[in-house]
């Protein structure tokens, strides 16, 4: 489990930002891929879906470790097996555009988890949440007990708020 925040907020355009969390995981990209695409494995760390997700598919996604276990309509907007997965979701909190990129990293897998944002401010809240879910992913892959969402994650909010402020102040890339 990561004790320090792993995410960074980057300005990517005039009105676009990325919150990027990076982890190195044991296993090949193919093995890590199943943690996202196999319904049973995904349910162990983030949630479940109804339907058959595939490129362009629409399905219902339920976050199992959020208060009320909300279900959101989702669409798989990009899928390159064992490399990239991008999902668009809608819920009471708004729109979510999240992407997972996997690549071989000297016998393990480098995972980049990206939340695409129109404004950087939500990173203050979502950064700690994604840290929690990625810690859950690591625990599930290791067969370890999952972490509890506790003060450790809440204490990361100021870090992500500073990241968001810095990204907002940065000039758009040329």
Could you please describe the fold and organization of this structure?
Residues 28-139 form the Activator of Hsp90 ATPase homologue 1/2-like C-terminal domain. InterPro entries: ASHA1/2-like_C (IPR013538), START-like_dom_sf (IPR023393). It comes from Arthrobacter gandavensis. This is Activator of Hsp90 ATPase homologue 1/2-like C-terminal domain-containing protein. Belongs to the AHA1 family. It is a single chain. The chain is 29% helix and 39% strand. It has helices spanning 29-37, 39-43, 123-142, 151-154, 157-169; strands at residues 7-13, 16-26, 47-50, 58-63, 71-80, 84-91, 94-105, 108-117. β6 and β7 (94-105) form a beta hairpin. It is built from 5 helices and 8 strands, in the order ββααββββββααα. It has 174 residues and is α+β, with helices and mostly antiparallel strands. The mean pLDDT is 93. It has an 8-stranded antiparallel sheet.
Write a concise keyword list for the protein shown above.
174 residues; alpha+beta; 29% helix; globular; Activator of Hsp90 ATPase homologue 1/2-like C-terminal domain-containing protein; START-like_dom_sf
Helices and strands, with pairings:
Elements: E1 7-13, E2 16-26, H1 29-37, H2 39-43, E3 47-50, E4 58-63, E5 71-80, E6 84-91, E7 94-105, E8 108-117, H3 123-142, H4 151-154, H5 157-169
Antiparallel strand pairs: 1-2, 2-8, 3-4, 4-5, 5-6, 6-7, 7-8
